[in-house]
């Protein structure tokens, strides 16, 4: 890994990396990320017409506060929330993914106890500033009237399954049963299958960052930003080298 980063002889110390992070700041990191996404769009790699929303939980490297078990001890911004397999103490990365290329279009980092619905409108507005979205695909966790109206306001079609407790008795709606079988109109079922793209994005993100090691929300945002930026830089390099098939690889050395 050190050789891939260009550090053949001497690896910078931890303090050097921390100073670089503090001098760069989140605003500059965000500018770099936006520039990389815009460049991939200009090259025709990212379309952004079909967008998938999802949230990925990341554990924080800290213990629970004994006085308040719902938050971290040394990391007060880390909160107790739902993870993939039970509760975790940490953060969530709220993602907007391009369904065709499995590439990130926008993201937000929040404590793990924050519901996915709270960041949906912000993510959609970030994407809509770049491209006209045709369809927004989410799981049933995002099912709400407000989110559906927000998607339609962008001129896009909401592809969100209705839970059992919503619109009971109404036929012809998109639904997912307990065995994860998709029911509803054929067109919506076809679009909903594209939701797997965000799972592949989450898998690559886990390979780059499986835990938040620094303390505080700002540090968590910086760590996630570096992981997102790494994926975008790899895609840019692969496209420039004429190897678009390697744009989603995180292990291939060009």
Structure description:
By secondary structure, this protein is an alpha/beta fold. It has a single domain, classed as Nucleotidyltransferase, domain 5 (2-Layer Sandwich). The chain contains six helices and nine strands; from the N terminus they run αββββαβαβββααβα. Strands 1, 2, 3, 4, 5, 6 and 9 form a seven-stranded mixed β-sheet that branches. A two-stranded antiparallel ribbon has the order 7-8. The longest helix has 29 residues, at 14-42.
Features:
254 residues; alpha/beta; Nucleotidyltransferase, domain 5; seven-stranded mixed beta sheet; two-stranded antiparallel ribbon; 9 strands; 37% helix; globular
Overall number of domains: 1
Q: How many H/I helical runs? A: 6
Count of individual beta strands: 9
The CATH topology assignment is Nucleotidyltransferase, domain 5
Helical amount among residues, as a percent range?
Answer: 25-40%
Order of helices and strands: HEEEEHEHEEEHHEH
Name of the CATH first level: Alpha Beta
Indicate the proportion of strand residues: 15-25%
Q: Which geometry do the CA atoms define? A: globular
Give average pLDDT, whole number: 89
Classify the secondary structure makeup into a structural class: alpha/beta
Which stretches are poorly predicted, pLDDT < 50 over at least 5 residues? none
Rg calculated over all Cα atoms: 19 Å
* Largest sheet descriptor: 7 strands, mixed
Q: Report the CATH superfamily.
A: Ribonuclease H-like superfamily/Ribonuclease H
Could you say what the CATH architecture is?
Answer: 2-Layer Sandwich
Distance between the termini: 14 Å
């Amino acid at each position: 890994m050190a050789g891939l980063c260009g550090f053949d002889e001497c690896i910078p110390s931890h303090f050097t990396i921390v100073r670089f992070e503090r001098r760069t700041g989140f605003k500059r990191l965000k500018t770099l990320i936006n520039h990389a996404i815009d460049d991939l769009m200009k090259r025709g790699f990212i379309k952004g017409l079909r967008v998938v929303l999802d949230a990925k939980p990341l554990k924080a490297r800290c213990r629970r506060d004994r006085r308040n078990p719902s938050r971290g001890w040394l990391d007060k911004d880390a909160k107790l929330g739902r993870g993939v397999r039970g509760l975790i103490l940490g953060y969530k990365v709220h993602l907007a993914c391009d369904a065709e290329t499995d590439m990130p279009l926008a993201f937000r980092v929040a404590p793990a106890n924050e519901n996915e619905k709270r960041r949906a409108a912000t993510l959609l507005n970030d994407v809509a500033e770049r491209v006209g979205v045709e369809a927004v695909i989410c799981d049933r966790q995002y099912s709400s009237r407000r989110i559906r109206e927000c998607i339609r306001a962008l001129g896009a079609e909401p592809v969100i399954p209705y839970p059992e407790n919503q619109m009971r008795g109404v036929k012809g709606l998109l639904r997912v049963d307990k065995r994860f079988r998709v029911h509803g109109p054929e067109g919506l079922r076809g679009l909903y299958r594209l939701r797997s793209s965000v799972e592949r994005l989450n898998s690559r993100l886990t390979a780059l960052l499986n835990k938040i090691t620094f303390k505080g929300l700002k540090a968590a945002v910086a760590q996630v930003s570096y992981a997102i930026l790494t994926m975008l830089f790899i895609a840019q390099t692969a496209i420039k080298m004429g190897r678009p098939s390697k744009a989603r690889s995180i292990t291939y050395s060009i």
